[in-house]
Specification:
Elements (H helix, E strand, L loop, with lengths): L9 E10 L2 E8 L3 H8 L5 E3 L4 E5 L2 H11 L3 E4 L19 H4 L12 H9 L4 H17 L10 H13 L4 H18 L24 H9 L4 H12 L4 H6 L5 E2 L4 E7 L3 E6 L2 H14 L16 H14 L8 H14 L4 H8 L4 H4 L8 H4 L7
Parallel strand pairs: 1-5
Antiparallel strand pairs: 1-2, 2-4, 3-4, 6-7, 7-8
Helix pairs in contact: 5-7, 6-7, 8-9, 8-12, 9-11, 9-13
Length: 380
């Protein structure tokens, strides 16, 4: 679609638009007589003052006509129009049946079937499915008397402003935006349509970390061997809560002293450390509880629940009289920070945590004690 002399060509950028409930191809360009003349020769061209661009009906034929009209004369930028986003390749079974089986609630608009179907076909993680459906339903019930196809960027922006006035967090707002974008851009097939929706700035909060002595105190205040093993793996292997719950018995490699984490965040596999102490306790736990599939199971051999893990960590930390609010992720943060403080290379920590970017791991340099030990205080 490009030639080697694209830097010398005039350009247009294609966008997805929804005008009066109909899909349109938006054509944005800087004022130019040649481009304006070529656009006039397209099928039924119109101008949108709201979007500040020309547009024609969205059909395969019209897309081909645009290509043939501008080819070799004007550079066509498809970046906003085409999407190369890969499908979720996780093997985790996707379950949207719960949402389908819900009884209709008077006056409450449920998530459209095509939304659920696309989540299912794209194999999104169950946690993401739940988040997207819940937030999208909040949005569509804010405009319950409007057809979804008639909602545009200004409506979405008004809804986000409504949420901001309710003092919701930046994380909450970002999840709402993701859920809405999924409908228009993935379900309706209009990638990058909402290019002008502003996202809140990410807050740069430091990770919460507790000392090794406090970690050992939390472990000592667990109720049984199962609870002890759960906390020892969260801390000693730096696992996310979801990763712990997805562990199978064979994922524990006692010969190499590693734990294989499959399909973690970003659908990546990785190896992380297995503590000798944790392995000894895991052997005792295995003989006592006899799990069959997952390393940690609830009733009837089902996967252990996320709520149960959180409760175990909270209960043990309260009994240990830890003033800091301790969660499974605080144990993971502490694992990374304590490794850094003991001299482990930041790149190695990045691999153990499964971070895609070193910038994510670098945050621990801001809380590691040895970062500040070498700095002489000006008061002293």
């Amino acid at each position: 679609m490009a030639s080697s002399n694209t830097s010398h060509l005039k350009s247009i950028t294609l966008y997805h638009l929804m005008i009066k409930g109909q899909k349109m191809i938006g054509i944005k360009f800087s004022p130019d007589r040649l481009i304006q003349g070529l656009i006039k020769g397209l099928p039924d061209p119109k101008w949108s003052s709201g979007h500040q661009m020309a547009y024609i009906p969205h059909t395969k034929e019209n897309l081909g006509i645009i290509f043939n009209t501008f080819k070799g004369v004007v550079w066509i930028n498809y970046n906003r129009f085409l999407s190369n986003r890969p499908l979720n390749k996780s093997d985790e079974p996707v379950d949207v049946s719960w949402f389908r089986k819900r009884k209709p609630i008077p006056g409450y608009r449920l998530c459209p079937e095509e939304y659920l179907l696309k989540l299912e076909l794209k194999r999104y993680a169950n946690a993401t499915v739940k988040t997207y459906v819940n937030f999208f339903e909040i949005f569509i019930n804010h405009y319950k008397d409007r057809e979804l196809a008639t909602l545009d960027e200004s409506d979405i922006r008004a809804f986000l402003q409504f949420l901001i006035h309710k003092n919701v967090s930046n994380s909450y707002l970002n999840q709402v935006i993701n859920a809405i974008k999924f409908y228009y851009e993935v379900v309706l097939g209009m990638p990058n349509r909402f290019y002008e929706i502003e996202r809140p700035r990410k807050s740069s909060k430091l990770p919460t970390v507790i000392s090794k002595q406090e970690i050992l105190s939390v472990i000592d205040n667990t109720n049984n061997i199962k609870h002890r093993c759960i906390i020892e793996l969260l801390y000693g292997s730096g696992l996310r809560r979801s990763e712990l719950l997805n562990l199978k018995i064979n994922d524990v490699d006692s010969k190499r002293m590693l734990i294989l984490v499959k399909d973690s965040k970003g659908n990546k596999d990785r190896n992380t450390l297995l503590s000798k102490t944790a392995l000894e306790h895991l052997r005792i736990y295995y003989k006592q509880y006899k799990p069959t599939t997952f390393l940690f199971e609830g009733g009837q051999g089902k996967q252990y629940s996320a709520e149960s893990v959180l409760k175990i960590v909270k209960t043990a930390s309260v009994k240990a009289r830890i003033r800091t609010r301790v969660t499974p992720h605080v144990l993971r943060h502490s694992f990374a920070t304590h490794l850094l403080e003991s001299g482990v290379d930041l790149r190695q920590i990045q691999v153990l945590l499964g971070h895609g970017s070193s910038k994510t791991t670098e945050i621990y340099t801001h809380v590691a004690v040895n970062t500040f030990e070498s700095i002489k205080n000006p008061l002293d």
